[in-house]
Amino acid sequence: MDVKLPSMQDADSGETTERLMPQPNESAPEHAAEQSAAPKEPIFSERPECPDGNEKNEQSGGEQAKGKRRTGDIVAIVIMAVLSVILIPVLAVNLSLIIKGSLRQDVPPDIFGVAPLAVTSGSMDGSEEDSFPEGALIFVRIFSEEEKQSLKIGDVVTFRAADNAYVTHRIVDVTTEGEQIVTVTTRGDANAVTDGAIAIGNVIGICTGHVNGLGDFSIFLQTPSGILVFIGIPVLLFIAYDVTRIILYNRRAKREVVAEGGEQLEQAQSELDSARNELRDKEEELARLRAQLAERVKQANSDENSKTS
Prior knowledge:
Layout (H helix, E strand, L loop, with lengths): L2 E2 L3 E2 L6 E2 L2 E2 L8 H8 L14 H52 L10 E5 L18 E6 L2 H4 L7 E5 L5 E12 L2 E8 L9 E3 L3 E9 L2 H8 L2 H85 L1
Antiparallel strand pairs: 1-4, 2-3, 5-6, 6-11, 7-8, 7-11, 8-9, 9-10
Helix pairs in contact: 2-5
């Protein structure tokens, strides 16, 4: 049964036409009813969220990459700290000794009043507790004129010889005038004869300790080869390591940026293809609905004409 709508008169022709509305219980094609009842979906779907597993994998990969970078930075910091602890004091001591040696040539250069001297002979190689062999590094505390008056037999002192070389031997005799020491007589523990009387003014200081074997090392360290081996090469190695680390870090960062951009581009292309497919489906569905509507209008007109006849 059809229900007539109110008649509408065409303004131009004056003809009255009637439009038919389908009965509410009239069944439409099943596919059309399902499509019209279905909620409308946006043509472009929202970006799908990544599953929890993928997010965890991405976070885990990012944390691993950050962990590797942090490890590399820690290694670089440790290497820099070790080189700084070793090289900075060595450079500071050498520079101080060079500067003081050039300013005052009458006394050996010292660090905080203690002069390190390398032993180049075995004249003090003996059985005494404070004896030292050739190649040792001795530490001489520089004495003032007042402190020189406190010297006594058995002290190991350093004095300036006639050829301006520094000699470190043991005092075996002290000569005084009144209460003032004027000369001391020294002899090496391994020597059979003395060095003669040494004027107290030529005495530099007293030996306070020694390290066996370190004298040869200090002598080598002052040579161009020693400077190259123990200062130049470590510095060059550190610079090479740091430059290599920076280059590798930049390359890795570039690869990560390119990979991330490629993934984003691929995902955007996939979303675009999906949107195009949805749009095509919508257009096809719209064409089917138009065809069904035209068919129903044609059928309705045919039924109306048959009733009128």
